[in-house]
Structure formats: structure tokens, C-alpha cells
Specification:
The complex is a heterodimer.
Chain A lengths: L11 H29 L1 H8 L8 H37 L5 H13 L2 H13 L1 H7 L12 E2 L4 E2 H24 L4 H8 L4 H30 L2 H6 L6 H10 L3 H27 L13 H47 L14 H6 L4 H36 L3 H13 L2 H12 L11 H26 L2 H10 L4 H30 L2 H6 L6 H10 L3 H27 L1
Antiparallel strand pairs in A: 1-2
Helix pairs in contact in A: 1-12, 1-15, 1-17, 1-18, 2-12, 3-7, 3-9, 3-13, 4-7, 4-13, 5-6, 5-7, 5-13, 5-22, 5-23, 7-9, 8-9, 9-12, 11-12, 11-17, 12-16, 12-17, 13-23, 15-16, 15-18, 15-20, 16-18, 17-18, 18-20, 19-20, 20-23, 22-23
Chain B lengths: L2 E3 L2 E4 L11 E5 L6 H9 L10 E2 L2 E2 L10 E4 L11 H11 L4 H14 L15 H14 L4 E5 L7 H17 L3 E6 L2 H7 L2 E6 L2 E6 L1 H6 L4 H6 L3 E12 L2 E6 L4 E4 L9 E7 L4 E3 L7 E12 L3 E8 L4 E7 L12 E6 L5 E4 L5 H6 L2
Parallel strand pairs in B: 3-8, 3-9, 6-7, 7-8
Antiparallel strand pairs in B: 1-2, 4-5, 9-10, 11-12, 11-14, 12-13, 14-20, 15-19, 16-17, 16-19, 17-18
The chains are: A mainly alpha, B alpha+beta.
Chain lengths: 567, 360
């Protein structure tokens, strides 16, 4: 009888408030602060951007220039992704074949791989004699650094990096969407006499169009915000995210903040409508546009022909792209470490070898050890704190009426370009804002928490929605468990896999993050930022070694993820 | 109690009292509010109006775990990360009973539901019937005196379902528990319950023993939902203590049981298919309705004939395959007959006859 009185003590309200405050202060405040900063200091911004006494509106022109460059780059990368990503997603969702798991891992790799290391690997592979060029017996790289993609006028190497890094978003999003659609619709269409391509166009495509759409938006946002790899391959050209890094380094804070809020607003304007759209589950596109019958007939004949001839191409072209953009660079960079180990293989100088650079006068090894320590502390602390916020937050999202709203604003740190995020954290906590935390390891941790919370929450929610937690919890309650007991004994064990996956994913993300970290790190360099510094200092062999080290580390993490999610 | 979900009223003034040790079946079509009712009793939902008393105490403010009830989900909700043993011992464990007692009780209950050998299996390794037994054992082990069963046999295949009905009742009775069993299967309800509560659109339509509900339905809906019936429209032309007389289409006069419907009013006559006999000759003392066999459907233990009466109305007769059984073919002229006391008369429904029967 005494036990029955425990209901009056209600801890959940306290937990809800603590969680929401953590969410607002650590995750959302920086981004909102960035935008309000621009408004509050509009006078400074106006002078610096539009009416600079010396250079006039040169900064504004620069902003426009990099914005258009970024848009051309992101749009074309997404278009390319779609071309190869849609068939690949279809194959992964519908077919079983040996090595499928491996292929899925390879596709996910760019999501976990530290981007600066990956960018460097791509750079070496395509533009240097140490890459494929040397392998083919040329004495230059396969792609000249100044090669440009026609029409969109973007350096080819930048384009390749962006395709590789955005590819997973399209494929994974679409694959999940296709898997959620019952195969009977397609079977029905096939037995009614439609060939595979016609079936795809008429039946599957209208059903998965929302998935394609949201994948494309995610990929676009990712490309718009990509910093780490782009910093390394961009050369003289500049994307919007890189511009923020450069301007911050040049103390052109007002311009950088203005640019940053422009990016945030653009990313928002893109993602929120899609979120709303995706929220309405049953929605499907109306595709019954009326074409002249003769044309439809011709299209269908073409599709039948294509269905017969193109099966193999459809299956293998995307995999070929994947191999070229992801696997080859990784192999090349690993191979280069070996060939550069003791000395530069072309000039024979020991100064050009990995060993000399690591342990020689530059003593990069020491820096690397220190950077590794920083990276690991940052990843551990930020992921731990984020998990502590994310678990109760996931329950709030799943249970409370305002959960959907929280979930959609949680997308903000995910789509905000990382350099904008870094800048906003710097402005909020740093010496120009509240002046509570100076540049350095604590500021890095604060930045990483901002994007780790959404990553973990999404992972937990995925496993939450997969099982009928509410029913199990209700069941536990009627069996005599209190609300708290039910969560502890039933709900938490059931979402354990999601928490673990989220933890590792966020750990990997934190370990590899470059853009935001570069802005806030001060003297506490992390490993990915170190790669950027090494490349800028032209310490190529040291950069090779560090990149390989990062890639191996992330592959280990990916393997752990596979084990935890498999059950 | 009353419960609304937005504009939908799921339960509308339901009032029910249940004796200790009673086995009550709440019967109704999909969407009648059965599950809502059960969830409110369990404390998983809060009623908008009304109170729930258990043992004379109002439990409205008690959380699910503090009520003397255990809710069994249709999908069983066996915890997937726990073994059979852990599932069954969950209730006692969480209530912090002493270890020895928990182990002894769990072992006893596993023995009772005949799953002692599978104690270390996980739920997904068990068949549907076994899972059902684990869920039942887990409910009983929790020590609650009131079992709330939401379609407990609904997820099983037809054969198993029939077999488990009696076992379920036996188990509840042996343990001296009170059970509220929700189902849409009228056969199940009639077979298993001490008392049947017919629910429709959130209201109680009729309460009574299975026999009462079956043989004396108090509405067209109950007559049609429980057991099924023939319906014929007509007008009452006279009543006496011995019975009433009703005139149907075509001027045919039918003797029926006593009814409250006044003379000259429109009414609906309902009589059971299985109370309707088909023969070549009239049966003395019964209502005899001549007609033509339209179709004959064989359903194993019985034969269903659809007969078109001379006034154009179609009725169905269900005849057991006994020694007295005689087969008729389509187009054959026959006489359908039923005894007057088996004919129930209801006032003509405001929304029309079809509306009442279709709601099923």
C-alpha cells in the first residue's frame, strides 16, 4: 500500500525541463545567435560588407561569387548523385547478392571518414604523380589541378570530392524508402505486362519520390556545408563554407557572420519545407500527366529495349563510380604511405619520406600524438554529454505532442554548414560574445555537442520506431512496474542498439569533423585539422601518413557499428 | 464512463459492474470501443468522465501498476529481450518480492502453462500458441486479480483458437481470477463467458448470460451480430397475452412472441436461421411461409438454404445434417417454418433496417 503513493512524486517534469534547457543552450542557441548577431551588429556588417571605405562593396561581390560557385557545385553534384544513386539504391533495396553488406559499408564510408583525410586521398590519387598517374606510367597526375567541369565551371577535383561525400545521403535515404514499399505493387505491375523500367517509372517512382527528394536535399545541404575535404582540394577556388573559414582567420568577422547566416537561412529554407512535406506520410505525387498515346508507346518500347540491354550497366555503373571515387583514393593513399615511408620515391631524398617528417626536425609525430589525444578527448566528452541529452530527448520527441517540432528544429545543426556552426559557437561563447569559453578544446567540445545530439537522437528514434516500445512499456506498467521502472527494464534495453550506434556514429563524426573545428580550435589542433595544416605546409608525406591513420581509425569504428547493429 | 478522441466519442456512458471471479466477455464489432474500455480499466487511458471502482475503491487516480489489473495485449507484448522465464518473473521481480518466492512462483506458473522446458527460450523462438501461454502466465504471475484480455486469441489460427478457448476459461476459473475478455468473435464470447456485454458505437447494447443474449436479443443489432438472423419488415396488427400478430409484405400474417410494439406500428421481425425449418409440408403450430429454394450452401455440419418467399422477401434457413436431413435442390418449392415464440419483434428503427444490420 505504501508503494502506491509513489505516483505523486513525478520526476519526469524535472527531466523534461533539464533536457530541453540543455538542448536549447548547447544545440540551438549558437545558430540563432549567429543570425541575431548579424541583426544586432547590422551597422558593422553594413560597413564591412557593402560600404567599406577602402574596397567598397568588394566583400559583397566576394560573397555573391562564392555563393554562386557553391550552388553550381552542389546542384551538379546532386544531379550526378541521382543519376547513379537511384539505380544503386534500387539494387540494394531489392536484390540479394554476395558482398552486399560490404558494398553497403563502402557506401556509408564517406559518412564516417574524416573529410580532410579523404579529401587529401582524393587529391593525391587524381592530381599527383604519386596517384594513378604514376601507376599508369605518366609523370603527372591523371587530372590536372586546373581541369574544370564544362558548363558549371567548377574544378573537376572539387566536383569528384563532393560527389563522393554526398553519394551516401541519396543512396541510403532512397534505399530505406524503397525497402519500406511492398514489392507486391511492382510484382502486380510486372504480371500485368509492364517491363522493369516502365514498372519503375509508373509504380515505384511516384511512391518513392518523397524519398528521392529528401535524399537530394540532404545531399545538397551536405555539399553546401562541406569544409574539410574542400579546404584541401579547392586550391584557389573557394566555396561558401571555405570562405567563412578564411574570413574568420582574417578577422573579417562581420563578413563571415553575414555569409554564415545567409548559408543557415538557405539551408533552412531548403530543409524545412521538405520536412513538412515528408511529415505527411500518405502523400504521393500525381504523375498521371497526359502524353499523346503514340509517345507513351514509343517511350515504353524504348524502356523495354533498355530493360533488356541495360541490366548489367545499370547494376555496375554505380558501383564503378563508387570504386573510383571512394575505394581507389583509399587504396592509393595507403599505398603511398608505404612508398614514401623512408624517402621520396621520385627524388630519393630522405627529407621527403614519412619517417623523416614524423621524427625529424619538424617532429610531426609529437604533434600528431598530441592532436590524437585532443581528438579523442573531444570525441569522448562531446559524445558522452550528447548521449546524456539525446536519450531523454528522444523520449520527449516520441511521447510529447511538441516532439515533432523539436525533431524538425533538431535538423538545423545537421544541415547548417559546419563552418557556420563553428563560427556561431565561437561568436556566442568566445571573446566577442559571452566571453565564457576561449578558443580551444572546450570550445571544440561545445561545437561538437551541437551536431552530435541530433545524430544520436535520430539513431535512437530509428530503433524506437522500429519496435512497439509504447506497447511494451504499457505492458510492463500493468504488470506492476512504475513509469521509471518500465523505462529502465524495458524501453532502454530495447533501444540499446540505437543508442550504441548513435554513440559510435557521433564519435566517428566528432573524430573526423574539420570545418567547424578549424574555426574554434585555437591552439588545440585535432587530427583532421592537422591534415589541413600539413597540406598547407606542403608536408605531403606527413599528411599521407595522417590521412591513412584517420581512415583506418574510421574503418575500425565502422566495423564496430556493423557489429552493434547486426545483433 | 465516457471517452472522446477529438470528435469521436469512443465510449458513451458505459456503466458496468462485474462480480469477483466472473468471466465477462465484451463483444462488439471493430470500432465499438472495446479496447478503449479495457485500456481505461487498466489505467492506460484516462476517461473523460466517470469513475472506475475496484473492490469499492475509486482507482481513477491510480497509475496502471498500482491497480489490481493486468492487461494482456493482442500481440502479447512479450519483452523481446527477455527469456520466457524472465518474462514470467517480470511482475514479481519488479514488485520486489523475495527471491525464493519469485522463483517458486515462476516455476509453478511455467508448469501450469506447460512451458517449463522452454524457460530459456526467447519469445521469437516460440510458436503463436506458446507465446500466448507465456503472456497469460506472465499476467497471472504478476499477482493481479483482474485479467484484462484484449482479443487474447485473435492472433492465433482458427483451429488453435477454438482449442484454447476452454483452456483459457479453465485457467482463469482455477486461479479464481476475474476476467474481462474483449472479442469480436461472437462464438468465442458465447462459449467462454459467464456474462456477455454487447458493445456498439461506445454504448452497451445488451448485458446478459450467453443464453439470454442469444435467445432473447433486445435489439435488431444484437440479433444480427450475435448468431445472425432473418429480418422481415411488417406492421403489428394485434397483440394478446399469448403473442402478437404481424402482417408482412404480401398480406401474410405471422404469429410472434409478445411484443411492446403497439398495433398499427411498423416493426421488424427477427428469427434465427437455425430456428427455421424447411420442409415440403406445413408444420402445425408454426408459421408456415411458402417459397422457392434459391441456393443451397453446404458448410460441413449443416446446410444453408436461401429461400425466396412468395412475397419476394429472401430468408435463410440453417439445417443440421442429421438423420432427418433431406436435401432440396434449387428451384424446388418448399415451406419454411418457425415457431411463434422464436420470432422477436422490434420497433422499426429510425435510420432504417439496413443501417442497423450494416453497422456490423
Amino acid at each position: 500500500m505504501i508503494q502506491r503513493m509513489t505516483r505523486s512524486i513525478n520526476p519526469s517534469r524535472l527531466v523534461v525541463w533539464a533536457t530541453l534547457i540543455g538542448l536549447i543552450v548547447l544545440v540551438l542557441l549558437p545558430t540563432f545567435y549567429l543570425i541575431s548577431y548579424v541583426f544586432l551588429k547590422w551597422g558593422d556588417v553594413w560597413v564591412e560588407v557593402f560600404e567599406n571605405p577602402i574596397i567598397g562593396d568588394e566583400n559583397w561581390r566576394q560573397i555573391l561569387k562564392v555563393l554562386f560557385f557553391s550552388f553550381r557545385l552542389s546542384l551538379s553534384a546532386v544531379a550526378f548523385d541521382l543519376l547513379f544513386g537511384v539505380p544503386l539504391a534500387y539494387v540494394l533495396a531489392r536484390k540479394q547478392f554476395p558482398g552486399k553488406g560490404l558494398l553497403e559499408d563502402l557506401i556509408t564510408l564517406p559518412l564516417v571518414i574524416p573529410t580532410s583525410g579523404f579529401g587529401f586521398a582524393t587529391l593525391i590519387t587524381w592530381t599527383s604523380v604519386a596517384g594513378i598517374g604514376g601507376f599508369l606510367g605518366m609523370n603527372t597526375g591523371v587530372i590536372p589541378l586546373d581541369a574544370v567541369v564544362p558548363i558549371i565551371n567548377v574544378p573537376l577535383i572539387v566536383f569528384i570530392v563532393h560527389v563522393a561525400l554526398t553519394f551516401p545521403y541519396i543512396v541510403r535515404t532512397l534505399q530505406t524508402k524503397i525497402q519500406s514499399i511492398d514489392t507486391t505493387y511492382e510484382t502486380a505491375s510486372r504480371t500485368l505486362g509492364a517491363n522493369p523500367l516502365t514498372t519503375f517509372r509508373n509504380v515505384l517512382l511516384p511512391l518513392v519520390l518523397p524519398g528521392i527528394f529528401s535524399g537530394a536535399v540532404l545531399a545538397f545541404a551536405r555539399s553546401l556545408g562541406e569544409t574539410g575535404a574542400t579546404l584541401i582540394v579547392a586550391g584557389v577556388s573557394s566555396t561558401a563554407s571555405i570562405a567563412i573559414v578564411r574570413w574568420t582567420a582574417e578577422f573579417k568577422l562581420a563578413t563571415a557572420a553575414f555569409m554564415g547566416s545567409l548559408l543557415v537561412i538557405i539551408a533552412w529554407a531548403l530543409i524545412l519545407p521538405v520536412e513538412r512535406y515528408m511529415g505527411r506520410e500518405k502523400r504521393s505525387f500525381k504523375t498521371s500527366y497526359r502524353l499523346p498515346f503514340s509517345l507513351i508507346k514509343r517511350v515504353m518500347r524504348l524502356e523495354r529495349y533498355a530493360s533488356e540491354k541495360l541490366t548489367r550497366i545499370k547494376d555496375f555503373a554505380p558501383i564503378f563510380v563508387l570504386v573510383l571515387t571512394v575505394i581507389v583514393p583509399i587504396i592509393v593513399v595507403a599505398n603511398s604511405v608505404i612508398s614514401y615511408w623512408s624517402a621520396d620515391p621520385y627524388t630519393g631524398k630522405v627529407q621527403g619520406g614519412v619517417v623523416y617528417q614524423l621524427f625529424g626536425p619538424a617532429n610531426y609525430f609529437n604533434t600528431l600524438v598530441k592532436a590524437s589525444l585532443t581528438s579523442i578527448i573531444v570525441a569522448l566528452v562531446s559524445t558522452y554529454v550528447s548521449t546524456c541529452i539525446a536519450i531523454p530527448l528522444s523520449f520527449i520527441i516520441a511521447r510529447r505532442w511538441y516532439g515533432g517540432f523539436i525533431r524538425s528544429i533538431l535538423k538545423v545543426p545537421l544541415i547548417v554548414p559546419t563552418s557556420s556552426l563553428g563560427l556561431s559557437v565561437l561568436l556566442l561563447w568566445g571573446s566577442n560574445g559571452l566571453n565564457l569559453v576561449g578558443s580551444g578544446i572546450w570550445l571544440i567540445i561545445l561545437t561538437h555537442i551541437a551536431f552530435s545530439v541530433p545524430v544520436i537522437v535520430e539513431s535512437i528514434l530509428a530503433s524506437y520506431e522500429g519496435s512497439d516500445i509504447q506497447m511494451y512499456e504499457d505492458s510492463a506498467r500493468t504488470l506492476g512496474a512504475t513509469a521509471y521502472n518500465a523505462i529502465e527494464t524495458v524501453s532502454l534495453p530495447l533501444i540499446k542498439g540505437g543508442v550504441l550506434t548513435g554513440f559510435i556514429l557521433s564519435f566517428a563524426h566528432s573524430l573526423g569533423e574539420t570545418g567547424a573545428t578549424y574555426i574554434v580550435m585555437g591552439r588545440d589542433i585535432t587530427v583532421p585539422a592537422l591534415v589541413v595544416n600539413m597540406v598547407e605546409a606542403l608536408a605531403i608525406p606527413a599528411a599521407l601518413f595522417t590521412s591513412t591513420y584517420l581512415i583506418v581509425l574510421s574503418m575500425i569504428l565502422l566495423t564496430i557499428i556493423r557489429f552493434t547493429t547486426r545483433r | 464512463m465516457t471517452k472522446r478522441f477529438g470528435e469521436i466519442t469512443a465510449l458513451d456512458g458505459v456503466n458496468l459492474s462485474i462480480e469477483d471471479g466472473e468471466y465477462v466477455c465484451v463483444l462488439g464489432p471493430t470500432g465499438a470501443g472495446k479496447t478503449t474500455f479495457l485500456r481505461i480499466v487498466a489505467g492506460l487511458l484516462e476517461p473523460d468522465e466517470g469513475e472506475i471502482y475496484i473492490d469499492g475503491k475509486c482507482v481513477n487516480n491510480l497509475p496502471p501498476e498500482a491497480r489490481d489489473t493486468v492487461y494482456m495485449f493482442q500481440q502479447y507484448a512479450l519483452f523481446p529481450h527477455m527469456t520466457v522465464w524472465q518474462n514470467v518473473s517480470y511482475g514479481p521481480e519488479i514488485k520486489d518480492w523475495n527471491r525464493e518466492k519469485v522463483e517458486q512462483l515462476t516455476a509453478e506458473i511455467l508448469e501450469m502453462v506447460r512451458l517449463a522446458e522452454r524457460r530459456d527460450a526467447y519469445p521469437h523462438e516460440l510458436s503463436g500458441g506458446m507465446q500466448q501461454r507465456v503472456a497469460l502466465g506472465r499476467g497471472i504471475a504478476s499477482g493481479a486479480r483482474i485479467l484484462l484480455l484484449d482479443e487474447p486469441l485473435g492472433a492465433l489460427d482458427a483451429r488453435l483458437r477454438v482449442g484454447l478457448r476452454t483452456q483459457l476459461r479453465q485457467l482463469v476459473k482455477d486461479q479464481g481470477l476475474t476476467a474481462i475478455h474483449v472479442t469480436h468473435d461472437q462464438e468465442e464470447a458465447l462459449m467462454i463467458a459467464d456474462r456477455v456485454v454487447v458493445l456498439r458505437n461506445g454504448r452497451i447494447e445488451q448485458t446478459g448470460t450467453p443464453h439470454e443474449v442469444y435467445s432473447r436479443p433486445n435489439s435488431i443489432f444484437v440479433a444480427s451480430f450475435v448468431g445472425g438472423a432473418n429480418f422481415v419488415e411488417g406492421t403489428i396488427i394485434g397483440s394478446s397475452d399469448a403473442g402478437s400478430v404481424m402482417e408482412v409484405l404480401g398480406g401474410l400474417q405471422i404469429k410472434v412472441a409478445v411484443s411492446d410494439v403497439g398495433a398499427g406500428e411498423k416493426a421488424v421481425l427477427a428469427f434465427r436461421r437455425e430456428d427455421t425449418w424447411v420442409g415440403e409440408e406445413e408444420v402445425a403450430g408454426s408459421n408456415n411461409l411458402p417459397g422457392v429454394i434459391v441456393s443451397a450452401t453446404f458448410i460441413g455440419d449443416s446446410m444453408e438454404y436461401e429461400i425466396r418467399l412468395e412475397n419476394g422477401v429472401s430468408i435463410v434457413s440453417k439445417i443440421l445434417m442429421s438423420d432427418a436431413f433431406k436435401a432440396y435442390t434449387e428451384g424446388q418449392r418448399v415451406v419454411a417454418s418457425f415457431p411463434p415464440e422464436k420470432g422477436h419483434v422490434f420497433p422499426y428503427p429510425v435510420m432504417g433496417l439496413l443501417k442497423e444490420v450494416e453497422a456490423i
